[in-house]
Structure formats: structure tokens, C-alpha cells
């Protein structure tokens, strides 16, 4: 099947003043990753500029004296005093472009950065760019199953697995190219819900295929990770228990990890979902999450492996009548007492909010509260609750808000970005992870515009100082070219999309008003009386969940002044008001509108925003490839219909609950 190369689909530039740089590439080292950097520069020169590049090996040693006598061209130079950790410097002087780094990964990232600049028509003359990755680990978590399906996948089937086999093909390398080009350095290829054949990925059964995948990933600076089954000692080893404190269980894991790392020596480690949504874990045996994680950490430590332990642990069989038990508290209640009790090669992977990737929810209170534990931020670009890649929903503005959230854990360097980068508490094992949104569709992400979230997550994880606007423009220019009308329209669509989705779905932080199981489309009471324990508590007087001191007390899990900010209705941010408080429909917001009028207005406004997005896209006909235009047009037409359905169901629901008319007299059913 023919598929696109997304933002690496190089189009020939009719004119570019910097062509001459690419006629010669001088390379100092001959390692595999540097070789990839050379290949990518040559490919970019050929496809973008129509130039055949000559590659020249520099003599050893190549010191400062020699550097002053060099000819025009691009130089890939290893410098032990240069940027480390994947950092790089690009500097141009007198016709020479030098990309320097302490490690080969930096040379690769610098090469991709140079190509991006060319794609965007940026002049290279006099350029001097110094970049250091903000996060040590920048990962994608794929939820791919070995039968080829993808849990919460909206872009076709898996290209990693098919019919219980590991697939390694041309697309594997193209995936690695795209992923590395935006600075991602770790990939978990299988679903966190590990069942059946996937449990056997840690055995020798799939070792040959995984080694081939590792070989491809490695030359792009990407480490392979696997999700594992906590109950593997029982399912694979025939033991009667998976108790992390049982000696026979410890011995089994140590022996199994010896085999696994012998088969796949450069494996990065494992992602673990335990004691959540039916997955086995240490709670089964009366043990803590730290005991479970540390047992595995001990088994992988001799091989440099890490254990990434998800904090998505909660009671999913809650009685809807119980008004004190609060799913939002679960991660904090389970993990906060364990701060400092996890091994150094354990990382807690914490979802951005206390619930589950909703369009709006507060930042998890674990961030800032945990001070002695390695942490990673987990976000979701798969759009499970934000339109499932049938709706445009550019999520980078949301991620920017999360990263910029002040936890007040310190006087300075207290944001989520500071914590997960390691700056706040000097942690080395930390970073960002995203639930991936790729699949076997020809455009990789189902909706062509959803690729902006894949690209954007990588760029943001590498450089958290970038704005959502800058990333949108970068992606657009690399994907569609630099035509000003095209860039303006697509960037406007992207930047409108997250606020629009929030407007026509769930108001003021309430979340969850969608169809159970598939999580698509409106169903206001779908989860209201369900065992999963997510509520909006709407009645004829008002709506919202009371999470203050008189309710579940969740507000008090935050550090001050956030705890008081959320506790008091007057200071609680209005976009989160119904997440933290039950409010009457007649309550007046800062805008002067009543709560119920805000619900009506925002849902009408959201559909109007989609109408504008559709109009902007229609104006691009003939300016972008017809196949792409038509494919996106179909999805945007669907988004318009679906947003109107959301508007009508939500507004009708609250009108029938409250019997309060829309002040503007619009049609409500």
C-alpha cells in the first residue's frame, strides 16, 4: 500500500539560496547513528533541492586548526565538549555549516532540524542554533495488540503486529524516521493491557523479529520498550502466585530478564499497568505499588533496564450511590504515601489529569507532591475522548497549559515541565510519554490534520519552550509548503480546534458526557449510574461534583495556594468549576451569564466554530493535494454533523432538567 511520509514528504523547492551547502557533506565519525544523519541529509538534498551530495570522510584527528581551513559544505562534527544528551549546535560561517554534538543522537537531531529549516524556506546564512532536549525520555506508548488491532486506535490496524506475529517491514523504518525526526527516543510497541500472546513477547519466541526491529530503531536513536504482564510468572512460569515478595516470583523474574536481555541486549525496559481496570498487580497480594515496581526494577537493573510504572490505578467497580469515594483521588491516595520508596530505575508515569485524558481537567495533584520519586508526564494524542481523529483537535495548547502549571513545590522551577525534566528535584530518569495515534492508514493518523499532534508532541517534549503556534506553523510548512494562505488557514483551524471541541461537548471541566465503551458521541447519562464511577451529578437545580472539604476533599490534595484556590468557588478557575463544585444553574459566572446560559451559549458557539473551520478548509481547494483535501473534507463534514448532535443533546438535556429557557430563544428540543 502506498502511504505518505507526512511532514517528511519532501517537495522540490523551486528556489532556495542555500543549495550550495548541500553539495558536500563532511563526516568525522562512522558510527551507525551518524551514518543515518548523513543519509537523511543526502535524501533531503536530493528530494528538496535536486542535488546529489558528495560525502567526504574527515581525517582523524580533526582539530581546531583544520576546522579553520575547511571548504564549503556541511560538517558533522563530534565534540566531547559540545551539547550532550541529544543536544546539538548548528552554526554557519563563510559557507560552512557545522553541526556539532557530544553524541551521535545530537548529530541526527541537528540534521533533521537543518532539513526542517530548508523545508520551511528559512535562510541558513549566519545561523547559530544551540538546542538541548528538555526531557531525557521522550516516548510514544502504542496500544497495539498482537492480532493487529489497536485499543483506542483510530488510524487503521497495527503495523507492528499482525496475526500474532511481530511485523518488521519497510514501514517500520519509515515510522522510525518520522519519530526520530521530532526527537522521540523511546517507543513502547504493545498495549499496556498485556494478554495472551503479548505476554510471550518477553520470551525467546519473538526474539528474532524484535532484534530486527531494534536494529532499525537503534540507527535512529530510538530504544525499544515493551509492556509486560505482571502475572507472567503464573501464565508463563506455571507458578501459583505473582506475589512480588515471594522468593520464587523474584527468582522467576530474574531468570526471565536474564533471558530477555540476552535475546534483546539494547532493550530499554518495560511499561507496566497493574491493579487497574482488571489488570493483575501487587494489590492482589496485599502489597504496595512500590513493592511490585521494585521487584521488577531489581530484575532489570543488571542490564540497565528501567521500569515505567503507570499511576493509573483506581477502583473501577465503584457504587454510583457512594458520594465520598472519588476516582480523582485514587492515584494520589495510592502513590503519595510511597514517595521516596521506589528504586532509582523506576519511573512513575502519571496521567496529565486525575481522571482520564478528558478535554478539560485539572493537572494531577501528584505533580509537585511527589518530591523523591522519578516521574513522567503521560498525555494522549490518540484523541480517545477528544474526537477520535474524526474531529480536528490539536492538543498541543492543552499540553502547554499542563507543562506550565505551577505546583508550588518550590519557590522556583515548580512547573510540571520543571518536574518531569528533572530540574526541580535533580531526577535523571524522567520525561514525557504520549499514547500514540498512528496506524496502518495511508496517512498514518486517519485524519491528516491529526499528524500535527504526533509531530507536536515530539517537538514539545524536546523543546518545551516552543509555543503551540510555532509548532503548528512548523508542521504546516513542512507538510503542506509555505503558501501563506494555506499556512494561515490550517494554523487557524488547528488553534481553534481544542477550544471548539470543549465548547460543544462538556462544559466547565465536567467531562464524561459521552457514549460508554467506545467513548464517542454524546450520552449525558452514559456513565452517570455506571460502575466506573464517573459522575456529573446533574439534577433539576444544578450540576457538578463537590470535591471541596465538604465533599470528597480532593481539593486538599494540592499544595497551597492551589488547594485554597480550588476550594473556594470565588477563586476556582471557571473552566474547572464543575469539576470541583456542585453549582446551581442560576449561578452567575464572571461574564455575567448564568451557568445554564453559558452551557447553551458555548454549545451553539462550538458548532459555529466548526462551521468556520469547514469554511477555511473549503477555501483551500486546489491549493493542496486533491486526495488530502477530499479526505479531510469528509471528516470535517462529519465533525460538523457530530458537533450539532452534541449541541442539541446537551442543550436539550439541561433544558429538560432545569426548565430554564435560553435567553436568546434559539431552537432547543
From TrEMBL:
GO cellular component entries: extracellular region
Any one biological process term the GO annotation gives: xylan catabolic process
Residue ranges occupied by any Glycosyl hydrolase family 67 C-terminal domain in the UniProt entry: 445-666
Positions of the catalytic residues: 277 (proton donor), 356 (proton acceptor), 384 (proton acceptor)
Domain Glycosyl hydrolase family 67 catalytic span(s) in chain numbering: 118-444
InterPro entries according to UniProt: A-glucoronidase_C_sf, GH, Glyco_hydro_67_aGlcAse, Glyco_hydro_67_C, Glyco_hydro_67_cat, Hex-like_dom2
A molecular-function term among this protein's GO annotations: alpha-glucuronidase activity
UniProt keyword list: Hydrolase
UniProt xrefs under PANTHER family: ALPHA-GLUCURONIDASE A
Entry protein name: Alpha-glucuronidase
Organism: Anaerocolumna jejuensis DSM 15929
Lineage: Bacteria, Bacillati, Bacillota, Clostridia, Lachnospirales
Amino acid at each position: 500500500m502506498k502511504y505518505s511520509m507526512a511532514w517528511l514528504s519532501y517537495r522540490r523547492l523551486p528556489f532556495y539560496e542555500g543549495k550550495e551547502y548541500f553539495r558536500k557533506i563532511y563526516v568525522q565519525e562512522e558510527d551507525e547513528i551518524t551514518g543515518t544523519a548523513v543519509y537523511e541529509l543526502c535524501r533531503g538534498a536530493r528530494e528538496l533541492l535536486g542535488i546529489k551530495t558528495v560525502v567526504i570522510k574527515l581525517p582523524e584527528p580533526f582539530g581546531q586548526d583544520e576546522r579553520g581551513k575547511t571548504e564549503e559544505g556541511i560538517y558533522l562534527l563530534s565534540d566531547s565538549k559540545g551539547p550532550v544528551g541529544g543536544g546539538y549546535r548548528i552554526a554557519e560561517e563563510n559557507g560552512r555549516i557545522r553541526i556539532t554534538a557530544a553524541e551521535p543522537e545530537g548529530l541526527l537531531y541537528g540534521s533533521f532540524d537543518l532539513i526542517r529549516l530548508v523545508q520551511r524556506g528559512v535562510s541558513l546564512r549566519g545561523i547559530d542554533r544551540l538546542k538541548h532536549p528538555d526531557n531525557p525520555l521522550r516516548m510514544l506508548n502504542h496500544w497495539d495488540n498482537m492480532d493487529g488491532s489497536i485499543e483506542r486506535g483510530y488510524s487503521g490496524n497495527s503495523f507492528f503486529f499482525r496475526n500474532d506475529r511481530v511485523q518488521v517491514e519497510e514501514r517500520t523504518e519509515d515510522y522510525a524516521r518520522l519519530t526520530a525526526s521530532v526527537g522521540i527516543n523511546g517507543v513502547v510497541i504493545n498495549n499496556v493491557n498485556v494478554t495472551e500472546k503479548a505476554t510471550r513477547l518477553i520470551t525467546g519466541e519473538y526474539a528474532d523479529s524484535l532484534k530486527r526491529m531494534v536494529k532499525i530503531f537503534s540507527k535512529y536513536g530510538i530504544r525499544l520498550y515493551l509492556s509486560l504482564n505482571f502475572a507472567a510468572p503464573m501464565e508463563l512460569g506455571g507458578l501459583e502466585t505473582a506475589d512480588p515478595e515471594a522468593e520464587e516470583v523474584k527468582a522467576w523474574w530474574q531468570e526471565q530478564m536474564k533471558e530477555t536481555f540476552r535475546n534483546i541486549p539494547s532493550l530499554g525496559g518495560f511499561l507496566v499497568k497493574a491493579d487497574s481496570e482488571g489488570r493483575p498487580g501487587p494489590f492482589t497480594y496485599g502489597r504496595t505499588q512500590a513493592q511490585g515496581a521494585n521487584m521488577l526494577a531489581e530484575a532489570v537493573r543488571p542490564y540497565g533496564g528501567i521500569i515505567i510504572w503507570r499511576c493509573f490505578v483506581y477502583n473501577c467497580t465503584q457504587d454510583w450511590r457512594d458520594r465520598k469515594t472519588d476516582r480523582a483521588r485514587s492515584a494520589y491516595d495510592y502513590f503519595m504515601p510511597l514517595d521516596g520508596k521506589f528504586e532509582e530505575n523506576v519511573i512513575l508515569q502519571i496521567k496529565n489529569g486525575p481522571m482520564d485524558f478528558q478535554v478539560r481537567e485539572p493537572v494531577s495533584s501528584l505533580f509537585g507532591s511527589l518530591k523523591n520519586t522519578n516521574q513522567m508526564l503521560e498525555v494522549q494524542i490518540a484523541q480517545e475522548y477528544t474526537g477520535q481523529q474524526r474531529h480536528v483537535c490539536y492538543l498541543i495548547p492543552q499540553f502547554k497549559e499542563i507543562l506550565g502549571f505551577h505546583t508550588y513545590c518550590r519557590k522556583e522551577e515548580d512547573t510540571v515541565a520543571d518536574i518531569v525534566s528533572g530540574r526541580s528535584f535533580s531526577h535523571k530518569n524522567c520525561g514525557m510519554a504520549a499514547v500514540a495515534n498512528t496506524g496502518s492508514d495511508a496517512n498514518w493518523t486517519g485524519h491528516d490534520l491529526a499528524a500535527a499532534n504526533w509531530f507536536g508532541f515530539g517537538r514539545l517534549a524536546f523543546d518545551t519552550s516552543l509555543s503551540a503556534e510555532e509548532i503548528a506553523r512548523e508542521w504546516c510548512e513542512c507538510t503542506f509548503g509555505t503558501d501563506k494562505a494555506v499556512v494561515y488557514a490550517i494554523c487557524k483551524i488547528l488553534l481553534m480546534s481544542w477550544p471548539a471541541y470543549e465548547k460543544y461537548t462538556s462544559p466547565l471541566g465536567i467531562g464524561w458526557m459521552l457514549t460508554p465503551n467506545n467513548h464517542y458521541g454524546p450520552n449525558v447519562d452514559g456513565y452517570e449510574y455506571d460502575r466506573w464511577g464517573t459522575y456529573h451529578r446533574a439534577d433539576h437545580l444544578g450540576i457538578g461534583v463537590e470535591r471541596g472539604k465538604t465533599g470528597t476533599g480532593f481539593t486538599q490534595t494540592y499544595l497551597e495556594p492551589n488547594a485554597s484556590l480550588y476550594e473556594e468557588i470565588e477563586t476556582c478557575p471557571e473552566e474547572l468549576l464543575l469539576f470541583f463544585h456542585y453549582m446551581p444553574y442560576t449561578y452567575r459566572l464572571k461574564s455575567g451569564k448564568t451557568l445554564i446560559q453559558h452551557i447553551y451559549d458555548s454549545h451553539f458557539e462550538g458548532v459555529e466554530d466548526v462551521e468556520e473551520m469547514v469554511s477555511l478548509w473549503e477555501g483551500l481547494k486546489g491549493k493542496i493535494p486533491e486526495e488530502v483535501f477530499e479526505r479531510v473534507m469528509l471528516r470535517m463534514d462529519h465533525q460538523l454533523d457530530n458537533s450539532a448532535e452534541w449541541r442539541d443533546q446537551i442543550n436539550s438535556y439541561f433544558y429538560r432538567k432545569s426548565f430554564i429557557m435560553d435567553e436568546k430563544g434559539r431552537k432547543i428540543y
